[in-house]
Amino acid sequence: MSEAVTHPTATQPGLLASLDPLLREWLPRQRWFAGKGRPVTGFSLVAATELLPSGGPLGLLHLLVRAHQPDVPAQSAVPHPGDCYQLLIGVREALPPRLAPALIGHPGEGPLAGRTVYEALYDPRATAVLLEALRTRARIGRLRFEGDTRQRIGEGLVPRLVTAEQSNSSVVYGDTFILKVLRRVVPGTNPDLELPLALAHEGCAQVPAPAGWLLADLDGHDDSYVLGVLQPFVRGATDGWELALHEPAKGTDFAPEARALGRATAEVHTALARALPTVTLGHQRIRLLADGMIQHLEAAAQAVPVLRPYVPGLRSAFEALADLAAEGHTWTAQRIHGDLHLGQCLRSPSGDWSLIDFEGEPSKPLAERRMPQPTVRDVAGMLRSFDYAAHSAVPPSPQWAAACRAAYCSGYAEVTGRDPRTDPVLLRAYETDKAVYEVLYEARHRPDWLPVPMAAIRRLSAGATT
């Protein structure tokens, strides 16, 4: 597999046409499909590579497919050519019962007519091909499987798909490695690979160092597409959300864990500041930042009427930040996690915390996700996450959240020497912006959860941060 190969079947014009009606039905049902609520009007093939011959007992096609839909929602002002998705398509004569949930369909024409196509990440035989390619640093067509030569990838590691999917897909190999397969991909430096590599160079123990990664080099693009990242699997780990979710109802003291998580976050921020450039944000940059937050607020209030009575108080959080900058106050910005919450943190059986998933908010443009930002943005995301865990309990426990928030900030200060609460204007602005986003999200997707961010809205509109 180490030689460059391009199999003709994968690039035949009839391939995508035969898959089109099947993908129109299957793709919008996937958890990671970003264009929900809008019909798919067509597909275009960005790249196709045959990893295993589709005419054999098991065929394996790697596809990059652009899904065309009507104009994106009004809040996205940038023209949108359609999202590009990474698909791993298995091809068999018939599916065994264990792969029934993976069925995509049966092409009626084209090079795959008469065969069965399915989501190959469910199939251990197919996902073993990916690990072997990473192990051997293969080049297959336009695909490059690369990695850290200091980390050995063993043979024969049994793969299993992680079924709790979100915006991407993950495969665990023998409790040794986990491969994150990015679903919606764009050309350029993806922070989900860039930042863990930078942190590994700094010796940051709080983030698993990438062992391998998958790239695609395509005509017309100076930058590669980052398609997947292989990292060590933290055995026996529990994600912070699952760990915290049941604690408020039990009355368990979670403050020591929150403090340790604050220290881990600070260690990551400190290492990122060493590894990558920092910038100073003055009046003009902060004014733009505050104006953007105000625009988010106004748009959310238009969409969610229950938010409207709180708009003046919430706006004051952003104006206070701009006023402070106008007085000459400046802030340091650096690379951060970008989407930090309890679900992005893993606690090992030894009690150590790790931070994962550095992709940032996938809905935002790549350039925006890679911009330096104040570290308080990550802190605000975690504080809101404690709030969510507390309000998920029956009955809700705001006292539990307050104790966790305080412990987290104290732990952060133990490493950096700076408690985020000593900059209340910046913290309030970022926490307010996050809560406004949550109100809009819950109103659209989970109305039963709307009381959770609304409790924060009432507190923040009155000027409180703790």
Task: Describe the protein.
- It is a single chain.
- The termini are far apart.
- The chain has helices at 8-11, 13-26, 124-135, 191-201, 240-245, 247-250, 255-275, 283-303, 311-326, 366-369, 376-391, 398-416, 424-445, 451-461; strands at residues 42-52, 59-68, 83-92, 103-105, 116-119, 139-140, 143-147, 159-162, 169-173, 177-181, 212-216, 225-232, 238-239, 279-281, 331-333, 345-347, 353-355.
- Helix 7 packs parallel to helix 12 (398-416), helix 11 (376-391) crosses helix 13 and helix 13 (424-445) packs antiparallel against helix 14.
- The protein contains 14 helices and 17 strands.
- The strands form four sheets. Strands 6-7-11-12-10-9-8 form a seven-stranded antiparallel sheet. The chain has a five-stranded antiparallel sheet with strand order 1-2-3-5-4.
- The protein has two domains: 8-232, no CATH class; 238-461, Aminoglycoside 3'-phosphotransferase, Chain: A, domain 2, CATH 3.90.1200.
- The chain has 466 residues and is of the alpha+beta class.
